[in-house]
Amino acid sequence: MIKLRPIIDCINNLLAEDTEASITYAALEARLALEKVCYDRLRQRHDYISHDQLKKWQPGAVVNTLMNEVDPHVAQTFTLSISKNPAQPGIKPEDEEYVPVGTEVGFDPKYIAKLWNALAGLALHVRLPKNQQDYIPSYGNKVEIVNKVTEVVAELERLATGTISSSGFGKVVSFDCNCGEKNKRRVAVLREGQLVSCINPDCPESWQVSKDENGEFWFETKAVPVDCGNCGQENLMRHRHIMAMKTNERILMHCRHCNAEHYIQWRLMQALRPNLENTDIT
Ligand SMILES: [Zn+2]
Ligand SMILES: [Zn+2]
After folding, report:
1. Is pLDDT above 70 for 276?
2. Residues near 216 by Cβ (< 8 Å), separated by ≥ 6?
3. Which ligand is nearest to the CA of 226?
4. Which of 27, 67, 24 is nearest to 48 (CA)?
5. What rounded mean pLDDT belongs to the chain?
6. Which of 11, 102, 119, 219 could potentially form a cystine with 31 if both were Cys, beta carbons 3.0 to 4.6 Å apart?
7. In the predicted model, what is the mean pLDDT of residues 204-229?
8. For the segment 223-238, what is each residue's pLDDT rounded down to a tens digit?
9. Ligand 2 centroid distance, CA of 226 (Å)
């Protein structure tokens, strides 16, 4: 869990110095703090998503990916409570008396993304000159930067009231990848046909999600069938490996039926439209 108090104190001290340089640095610290808050939510949930599946690195986008792929509650506030007494036969769970254990404070990823972008726009770039007579300012508009940083500090103060951090909640299914890594996924966000990558950063395997008639999820390796040019038999190549290849990159396929070796490569191809094939162009 990120300790926000020292970060907030640092930003406030920089604001109190009240120079153009110190408030610009305060804006940078505020922006880094927003990234840390979002990335910490990711870190807590990294058992449920591979690094490869994060298509964007921006903090707001990371939290959106987490909401869609890992835990729909990631941005919500919740309080964990425990019953005062041990469970006893004859007493319903809802009739127990509960005491709070801790609270994880949620946030609106859109608002965080807006603040993060605004700080960069106001403080972390030099303004473009409009014409030859224009000057290049040393810093952004001081008043606007202070107002925005103060807004971020208020949000950080609110987030700092959180006392716990969790990896989320909800039913989990798991499977063992061929590399030996145990992969866990939350049922609430799994979709039929979805492709999930192994969480082991060194493993190229990806798995396709299916749901049977009983509503149970299962996972099968996603493979691309490639026919051997020598014996014509099918070989299965790893989907993630093939899709990660660059144009003109060449990999060797070793046929498991006849031992022949072939190269595989992505190439730009041209196809002739059949109805134009025999048309004379004059
Ligand atoms: Zn794996
Ligand atoms: Zn072959």
Report:
1. no
2. none
3. 2
4. 67
5. 89
6. 119
7. 87
8. 888 999 999 999 988 8
9. 10
